[in-house]
Structures are given as structure tokens and as C-alpha cells.
Specification:
Elements (H helix, E strand, L loop, with lengths): L1 H22 L4 E3 L4 E5 L4 H9 L3 E3 L6 E7 L12 E9 L7 E8 L7 E3 L4 E4 L11 E3 L8 E4 L9 E10 L5 E11 L13 H15 L6 H13 L2 E2 L8 H11 L1 E2 L1 H14 L4 E5 L8 E7 L2 E6 L11 E4 L1 H10 L21
Helix pairs in contact: 3-5, 4-6, 5-6
């Protein structure tokens, strides 16, 4: 009798265990991508995280997933991920889980930064607006979605000057490109009175022709300014009846190669502005005679710029001179001690001291 009871209990236990196993399905691996792409300079941890991203088991009791990487078309397992193609096999510690296969692409290490196109120095006029992105594009050898940012916080469109605007882009691999362009904020030089001598368009065309002959590609602003200085400085000094129209004064200096300080300043203004170099005209105060010259902005700093020749007794090349330098020269002129005296307090731009 006891033997029968034991057999019955054993049968019931086996039936219960069998029914429990029947009610709990075998989990399956889900979330495996058809192909995973990584890079040869990724660490093993980064690669394994990419392989396991989104992969889990579904149905039944969750179980730990095991990933094995094989050389393409072989059963040779590897952990050295050089550039190339590999086979992936996903299994689980629960041996009943069916394996899932996939592939791994290891790209060569990407150290190439994005490339910009269309970035150029910009010339705008006081009060204008400017779109820094017009015509600018960025591409990358691997990242199809690379974008760029523009930092124009240094630019002040309400003040004459030469400013920097910076374009930056970083691809998904962390490679960064940064390109800086110049933004010249210039004074709009209107034509003034109508003149039968020349128009503003004719003066612009003349200035462009002159710049084409004296400037070379790749010149810095300092080099451009010096070339313009030398060109205008070679104008012969003669006293003239200056025209109320600055365009005529510049035209006469550049076409006749003659003029006085008014002509020198006007010709310099026209050429510097056409070259995209910010400039501002100032005049002598407190002297016995009038005199006009410019200050120019080079490398974000203002300097004196006077192409008019000085006397042979007191020679002085006023090219990118500081306030201290022109004051020292003025103090040396016993005949005209206030040669470069100007209203510094009311000048809107601070000249380097």
C-alpha cells in the first residue's frame, strides 16, 4: 500500500513539474540589428556596448545575452577589431534560447575634420544687417548630418572696425574644424554733390583697377594698407582748390597724380574702403593751417595713416603710427608743433597709444 501511495505522489510531482515547464515559454533574443558599424579606434567596451544596444530577450524568464565575434566566414572567434567585416553570434546562458546572427562592420579610424566651403571675408556698412550663413556649407567624409555654428559675438555693426567671425563644426567622431573670417564694417561713402567730373561708380571702377595692379592674393590687411599708402604717397604735392565733393578730390589725385592733403586723404579713403579696410577721416585742431588724414583699423586696432608727405626738414612716414608716435613727431615740429593734434576726446575710435 505504501509503495502505491509513493508511486502516485511521484507521478503527481512529475506532472506538476511538466505542466510548469509547459506554461513558461523559452525566451527569444530580440532587438538584433542586421549590421552594427563601429570604428577601429573604438575601445572594446564601446564596441560591445554598440553590439548590445537594444538587444534583449523576450518571453519567458530573461537571461543574460552572450555575444561572440568571428572572423568573416569562419568559426574563429576574435577580440581584435581591425578595419573589416565580422560575423556576430548572439546566444544566451539559457542554452534553450535560439542563437541569432548578425554582422559587424569596423571602419578605419576617422581623424578627418569636417570641411567648410563658401566662407569669405565680408564687407558691410554701418547699420547694415548680415547673414553669415549665406553660401556657407560644411561636409564630412563620414558624418552625413554634420552641421556648423557661427560665433559673431565680436562683431559690432554699429561701429567701424574689422572684426572676426568664427565658423565651427564637429562631426560624430569628435573631429572639429574652425575657420575664422573677417567682417569689415565700413562707412558708406556717399557721392555728395553731383559732379560733372566723375561719378561714384567711375571712382569705384578706377579704385578697383588700381587695387588689381598693386595688391596680390594672400596679402594681409597690413600689407594691403602699405601698398595703398605707397601708391597714394607718390602723388605729387601741390596746392589745389579743393572740391566740396570728396569723390572729385579722390579722382583728381588718382588721375592727375597731384593734390594736397585733402586729395591725399580722399584718395586713401577711396582705396582703403574698396579694399575692405575700415578707415575714418580726422582733421587737425589748434593749428595755424588745416590738415586732414585718416585713422585705419588693422588687426582690430586703430592707427594713424597719413599719405601726405611731410617737409624734407622734418621727414616722417605716418604709416600705422600710434598716438604717442604722432605726438612725439608733432612736438618735434618747431614750425608746426600741433601737426597731428586732433580732438581725441570726441574721436569715436581709440587709436593705439
Amino acid at each position: 500500500m505504501k509503495k502505491i501511495i509513493f508511486i502516485v505522489l511521484l507521478a503527481l510531482t512529475l506532472c506538476f513539474a511538466f505542466s510548469c515547464n509547459e506554461s513558461e515559454p523559452t525566451p527569444v533574443i530580440v532587438g538584433v540589428k542586421e549590421n552594427v558599424t563601429v570604428y577601429a579606434d573604438d575601445s572594446s567596451d564601446v564596441i560591445m556596448n554598440a553590439l548590445l544596444d537594444g538587444v534583449t530577450t523576450e518571453g519567458g524568464k530573461q537571461t543574460e545575452i552572450v555575444v561572440k565575434v568571428f572572423n568573416k566566414g569562419t568559426d574563429t572567434e576574435t577580440s581584435l577589431f581591425t578595419a573589416g567585416e565580422y560575423d556576430i553570434r548572439y546566444t544566451a546562458k539559457n542554452k534553450k534560447v535560439k542563437a541569432v546572427t548578425s554582422s559587424l562592420t569596423v571602419k578605419p579610424a576617422d581623424t578627418t575634420a569636417p570641411e567648410f566651403a563658401g566662407i569669405k571675408d565680408l564687407v558691410v556698412y554701418l547699420g547694415d544687417t548680415v547673414s553669415y550663413r549665406d553660401g556657407v556649407t560644411v561636409t564630412d567624409n563620414d558624418d552625413e548630418n554634420v552641421t556648423f555654428t557661427v560665433d559673431a559675438t565680436k562683431v559690432d555693426l554699429t561701429r567701424l572696425g574689422a572684426y572676426e567671425v568664427t565658423y565651427s563644426a564637429t562631426d560624430k567622431r569628435g573631429n572639429t574644424a574652425s575657420v575664422t573670417a573677417k567682417v569689415s564694417v565700413l562707412e558708406p561713402l556717399e557721392g555728395g554733390q553731383d559732379s560733372s567730373v566723375c561719378t561714384k561708380e567711375e571712382l569705384d571702377a578706377l579704385c578697383q583697377s588700381i587695387l588689381d595692379s598693386i595688391l596680390k592674393p594672400g596679402m594681409t590687411d597690413r600689407q594691403k594698407a602699405e601698398a595703398i599708402y605707397n601708391k597714394v604717397h607718390n602723388v605729387k604735392y601741390v596746392s589745389t582748390d579743393d572740391d566740396p565733393n570728396w569723390i572729385v578730390n579722390a579722382w583728381m589725385a588718382l588721375t592727375t597724380n597731384k593734390g594736397d592733403c585733402v586729395n591725399y586723404a580722399a584718395a586713401s579713403r577711396a582705396l582703403l574702403t574698396m579694399a575692405g579696410i575700415p578707415n575714418y577721416q580726422i582733421e587737425r585742431v589748434g593749428g595755424t593751417t588745416d590738415h586732414y588724414w585718416l585713422i585705419v583699423c588693422i588687426d582690430e586696432k586703430w592707427y594713424h595713416f597719413d599719405t601726405c608727405p611731410t617737409s624734407k626738414k622734418y621727414p616722417f612716414k605716418c604709416f600705422l603710427k600710434t598716438d604717442s608716435e604722432v605726438k612725439e613727431y608733432s612736438d618735434s615740429r618747431t614750425d608746426k608743433p600741433n601737426y597731428y593734434g586732433y580732438d581725441k576726446e570726441n574721436c569715436p575710435y581709440d587709436v593705439v597709444d
